[in-house]
Design goal:
The protein contains 15 helices and seven strands. Among the domains are: about 5-100, TATA-Binding Protein (2-Layer Sandwich); about 260-300, no CATH class. It has helices at about 20-30, 85-95, 105-110, 115-125, 135-145, 150-165, 180-185, 190-195, 200-210, 215-220, 225-230, 240-250, 260-270, 275-285, 290-300; strands at about 10-15, 40, 45-50, 55-60, 70-75, 165-170, 170-175.
């Protein structure tokens, strides 16, 4: 274990797009099942591991002393990070916490929708917390297909220990989910040995090869339909996996799946009436471009 004073440290400030509530962020991270136990959430702070060019690093984000102030970040690593690597780590944190999302257009639409306005008032300033990387989200989609969450979480942990990286900070070891390269270079048989599931190993290998060969920036900003088609083309991916990664891995908020049962239940609760896919699609229609946020807020409501 390395002492804190032997680690390399980079630090600076993060300016979220306002309105922004770090308190809402921390509430969500603390209850996010796919990443349960993978980070430390404390009063006004979040600490989590990430891989940058296969180098493990740990970032810590702290709230300012006064509401509305800038966030402060520190990035810890064993090896010195180049300026480009530090910038990549900071960009990853901004992406993960959706710090650049402008919520005002979404909130403006909600003003004319009383049930949604009440939800917005409850969650005001909440920016979507995505999976740390789209690749992690894609792997989680594979692992959870027809599989209980505790079993999927165990397979994920074994993947991280075999192909990811770790760094110990203040007596806590933080594990980072692997980048796609190591899994893409590994054989399917080896992945199967690690997770104990042959079919999922085949699908994970295909996911890794696909993500290792694509420009992540294109996934985040390219034509929505083209990106969706690319995801559907990955072996083991269907409509649910594609929609899941578009929203929670890439922050693409353009559309929703109106037949998704958990969203139907959440929307029925907020709007005070039982909804069908057709009636829910009608309610979501005014939120064109923001339907993903509409769905996120509905799912997150107390």
């Amino acid at each position: 274990m390395l002492a804190l004073d032997t680690l390399q440290v980079k630090q600076g400030t993060l300016e979220p797009r306002r309105p922004f509530s770090f308190e809402r962020t921390l509430d969500f991270v603390g209850s996010f099942s796919p990443a349960m136990g993978e980070q430390q959430v404390g009063p006004g702070s979040l600490t989590k591991a990430v891989l940058i060019n296969e180098k493990p690093a740990v970032f810590r984000v702290d709230a300012g002393d006064e509401p509305g102030e800038s966030l402060h970040y520190q990035v810890f690593s064993c090896e010195p990070l180049t300026p480009d690597e530090e910038a990549a780590a900071v960009d990853r944190v901004r992406f993960y916490l959706s710090l650049d999302d402008d919520l005002e257009p979404f909130y403006s639409i909600a003003e004319g929708d009383p049930p949604m306005r009440r939800v917005v008032e409850q969650l005001h300033g909440f920016h979507q917390v995505k999976f740390l990387t789209p690749f992690e989200n894609a792997c989680w989609a594979v692992l959870t297909q027809r599989t209980p969450i505790p079993v999927a979480r165990g397979m994920k942990r074994r993947l991280v220990e075999a192909y990811g990286g770790s760094l110990t900070l203040e007596d806590t070891t933080y594990w980072a989910f692997p980048e796609p390269g190591p899994l893409a270079r590994s054989g399917q048989d080896e992945i199967s040995r690690v997770i104990g599931h042959e079919q999922k190993a085949d699908n994970l290998h295909n996911v890794a090869r696909a993500f290792d060969s694509v420009d992540e920036q294109w996934l985040c900003t390219g034509d929505y339909n083209e990106v969706a088609a690319w995801l559907r083309g990955i072996k083991g991916f269907g409509e649910w996996s594609t929609s899941f990664v578009l929203a929670r891995g890439l922050g693409r908020t353009e559309t929703i799946q109106p037949d998704e049962k958990h969203l139907l239940a959440a929307a029925s609760k907020a709007y005070g009436q039982p909804l069908t896919p057709t009636s829910m699609a009608a309610l979501a229609a005014p939120y064109a471009g923001w339907q993903g946020y509409w769905a996120l807020y509905l799912r997150t409501q107390a």
